Amino acid sequence: MTSQEAAMYAIPTAAQILGVTPAALEAALEHGETIRSLTIACGHDPDLMTEAIVDAETADVVALADIAGFGPDAIAEFARELRAYLVAFVSDGQHVADRLFETRTLQPV
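The structure corresponding to this sequence follows.
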């Protein structure tokens, strides 16, 4: 799984909540904004945004890991690490989240 895949639903989910297009959100992120800063600027709760993104991502990943035959402990660990990645992605941006990704088991094997 790449870091891009780890945040597959983050941009569309955040864009929908913020009422912008995914392309507009990506452009703002490329200019140094974070999903958290944009969420606050739009008057939304950043914690609710983070939870919406984590929920959107985690359900599919957990289902796929289960189908692939991973055990409950491995799935729980992966879900924790995915959550940590997504929290960093929302709060601090992709570069920070990617550094986390590089040091955890979210990286491809």
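The helical segments are 3-6, 10-18, 22-30, 35-41, 46-67, 72-92, 94-103.
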